[in-house]
Write a structure and sequence with these properties.
It is a multi-pass membrane protein. The chain is mainly α. It is 72% helix and 4% strand.
């Protein structure tokens, strides 16, 4: 297993730690930042999520720079993104920071595109993430990070940045899903 794939696996391995920090009732207290209050466990969970999310950029950078792009990496990278984002979104619903219908929409798209990739792989086609898919992932990461931090950076100006970011992520989620299916409709047209 090459270095980029190991970095991708590290993203997957950070998910249980993120879940433990976010869901176990740690009584570390609250912290104040710019007048906003945030449970310390949520701050630590947000840091873990952000660190795990940055590995998405790091593994891709090394894979491209050193020509280490593999089919395993093309499979693992989007899977790691989906697992991390889905876990974080479900946690956000549980702690009351995200609307369940938006989370269902986002996760449903992830299942649908994963299914499409599986069908294409069965026909010998490996579909790497395209630019729209990457934008979708980064808008999700920004929205989730803002929600995990309880929108604390934007509290001073009373801007619901986290909620707006989640709507933007939902928009790109639907758009990129439509894009994957429209570009690969031949799979369904040619099937019997």
């Amino acid at each position: 297993m090459n270095l980029p794939n190991k970095i991708t696996v590290s993203r997957i391995l950070l998910i249980p730690l993120f879940l433990l920090i976010m869901l176990y009732p740690f009584s570390w207290g609250d912290m104040k930042f710019l007048g906003a209050e945030l449970p310390i466990a949520h701050f630590v969970g947000a840091l873990i999520f952000i660190i795990a999310s940055t590995t998405d950029w790091i593994d891709g950078y090394y894979a491209r720079k050193y020509n280490l792009v593999t089919n395993l990496g093309k499979f693992l990278d989007p899977l790691a993104d989906k697992l991390l984002v889905s876990a974080a979104l479900i946690v956000l619903v549980q702690i009351g920071m995200a609307s369940s219908w938006i989370v269902i929409l986002i996760i449903s798209r992830e299942f649908a595109v994963t299914g499409l990739r599986a069908i294409l792989a069965g026909e010998g086609e490996i579909v790497a993430a395209n630019m729209l898919g990457k934008i979708k992932t980064w808008t999700q990461i920004i929205a989730i990070s803002a929600l995990l931090l309880h929108n604390m950076i934007f509290e001073l100006v009373s801007l619901p940045f986290a909620d707006i970011a989640l709507w933007v992520a939902a928009f790109f989620t639907v758009w990129s899903g439509w894009d994957y299916f429209s570009k690969n409709k031949h799979v369904f047209i040619n099937s019997k």
